[in-house]
Amino acid sequence: EDQVTQSPEALRLQEGESSSLNCSYTVSGLRGLFWYRQDPGKGPEFLFTLYSAGEEKEKERLKATLTKKESFLHITAPKPEDSATYLCAVRPNAGNNRKLIWGLGTSLAVNP
Amino acid sequence: DVKVTQSSRYLVKRTGEKVFLECVQDMDHENMFWYRQDPGLGLRLIYFSYDVKMKEKGDIPEGYSVSREKKERFSLILESASTNQTSMYLCASSLPQPYGYTFGSGTRLTVV
After folding, report:
1. Are B49 and B56 in contact (CB under 8 A)?
2. Which residue of A has its CA nearest to B97?
3. Mind spelling out the 3-state secondary structure of chain A?
C-alpha cells in the first residue's frame, strides 16, 4: 500500500538552530514528491517539487533533498516566521496518479 | 497572481441543511480537488475532477456530491449537513501530472 510518513510530528527550535524534517514514502514508483507549508487556518502553500533521487531544491532558508526512500526538508538558521506545519505528498507512478498521497505533517515552532 | 478562490472563509450551518461550497480557479487548470482536513487525520480527498462534467470519488465521498459545469468552477455539495462534517474544507487545482496543486485559503465549516 502506498504510504507517506512524516517525522517528527512536532519540532520546537530556537531561532538560528538548524534542523531537518523527514518524509519517508512507500509507493509503486515515484512520479513526484511535493513539499508544502501550511499556516494555521490557511490552505497549504507550495514549496518544492522533486522528481528523482539526488535532486535538491532551495528557497531562502529551506532546502529539500530526495533519495529513493525519503526526502528531507533542511531548515538552516530558522526564524520565528518559519513556524508552520510542513506537509509532504507523493504522486505515484502507477494507478490513479492524479491523486497525491499525503503525510500528516510536521508542526514546526521556532522560538525567538 | 494565480489564484484558487473559495467563496467563504467561515460558514455555520444547521444539521440537515443543504450546503454549497464554491471554488473558482483562474489558471485554466484541468484538475480540481476537494479535501477536508481534520486534526490527526490530515488531508483526505473527497472528490476530484479532471475535466468539465467529469468527476471521480476520492477516499471519503459519502455524504457529499460535486458539480463541475465550467472548467474554472468546482462546487462541493453537502446534501444534508451533519455535525460530523464540521471541518476545514480545501479546494485545489493542478495541471495534468506531474505538477503539484495550488490550494485555496479554505472554508471552515461548522455544522450545529
Report:
1. yes
2. A98
3. CCEEEEECCEEEEECCCCEEEEEEEECCCEEEEEEEEECCCCCCEEEEEECCCCCEEEECCEEEEECCCEEEEEECCCCHHHCEEEEEEEEECCCCCCCCEECCCEEEEEEC
Residue contact B42–A105, C-beta within 8 A: yes
pLDDT digits (tens, 9 = 90+) for B58-81: 999 999 999 999 999 999 999 999
Instruction: Provide the edge-to-edge strand list for the sheet that holds A70-75.
Output: A3-7, A19-26, A70-75, A62-66, A56-59
Cβ neighbours of B43 in A, within 8 Å:
44, 87, 102
Best probe of the A interface among B87, B97, B102, B109, by most A CBs < 10 A, is B97
Cis check for the bond before A78: say yes or no (omega within 30 of 0). no
Pick the residue from chain B with its C-alpha nearest to A30: B98
Tell me the pLDDT tens digit for each residue of B95-109: 876 678 999 999 999
